[in-house]
Design brief:
This protein is mostly beta strands. It has two domains: about 110 residues, Immunoglobulin-like, CATH 2.60.40; about 110 residues, no CATH class. The protein contains three helices and 17 strands. Strands 1-2-10-4-7-6 form a six-stranded mixed sheet, with no helix packed on it. Strands 11-12-13-17-15 form a five-stranded antiparallel sheet, sandwiched between helices. A hairpin with a 2-residue loop joins strand 1 and strand 2.
């Protein structure tokens, strides 16, 4: 399994970093000159940030950008704030940057794409998911049936842990349907939320997001009843990618 490089290297006037969508990359840039930013074997599509903090020039032909902080007096350079920037690419990657203005010569920032991550993204694009497919899996989970092309998967003991208990799983070629049981064992009203459930799913088991597997498999979820009185329970239906 390939892993991301956690350090940068500088060679021939270039700073090379690996794309890492799970973290903000901090990179020093020249205060005076234009810093070129490009993504290896990809093209920058959109740039998001506070335009009042920098001067930006785009090269749409090559899919790269040139950026320079707004000029400040030399004595104020050490107080110059960092520049938060978010880039999206044609291949579907998103990268958050924190650019640190400093008194140095302009260099090129090259963002490298992890080979395995690029292959996973290309695979996802070759297997488009349609709304009807996702809705069919949700409905099959609610009716506790197995759709054509799916099979029921035995559950491991590790899934029998709260606060959400996985009680059923079906798997097809592209999608998996999961049925969780949420139970309010407290003496107060419990309000369920999609973000909390998503965090629970993506932080454990086979769907856990790790440094080696950073592509979120979560596609859709449905909470049957969001507000649970003490002693009440409800089912939660989730659709994730099979691979």
């Amino acid at each position: 399994m390939l892993t991301f490089l956690l350090t940068s290297s500088t060679t021939h006037g270039a700073i090379i970093r690996s794309l890492d969508e799970m973290k903000v990359l901090e990179v020093p840039i020249s205060q005076e000159g234009l810093t070129r930013i490009k993504v290896q074997n990809d093209r920058i599509l959109h740039v998001f940030g506070n335009r009042g903090e920098y001067v930006l020039e785009t090269d749409e032909t090559q899919g790269q950008i040139f950026i320079r902080p707004m000029l400040l007096p030399r004595e104020d350079l050490k107080h110059s704030p960092s520049i938060p920037l978010t880039l999206t690419t044609e291949a579907g990657f998103t990268q958050d940057l924190r650019l640190i203005p400093s008194h140095q010569a302009p260099e090129t920032l090259i963002l490298k794409v992890d080979t395995e991550l690029a292959q996973e993204l290309a695979k996802e694009k070759r297997l488009p998911l349609f709304r009807e497919e996702v809705e069919e899996v949700i409905q099959a989970c609610r009716e506790e049936r197995i759709p054509l092309g799916y099979k029921e998967v035995p559950l491991s003991l590790s899934t029998l842990e709260g606060p959400y208990l996985l009680r059923r799983e079906i798997q097809g070629q592209k999608l998996r349907g999961l049925t969780y049981r949420a139970q309010n064992n407290s003496s107060e009203v419990l309000v369920l939320s999609e973000p909390e459930l998503a965090h629970h799913i993506l932080s454990r088991g086979k769907d856990k997001i790790t440094r080696e597997n950073r592509s979120s498999p979560l596609i859709a979820l449905l909470i049957s009843k969001k507000t649970l009185n003490p002693g009440e329970g409800t089912d939660v239906y989730v659709v994730v990618r099979a691979n």
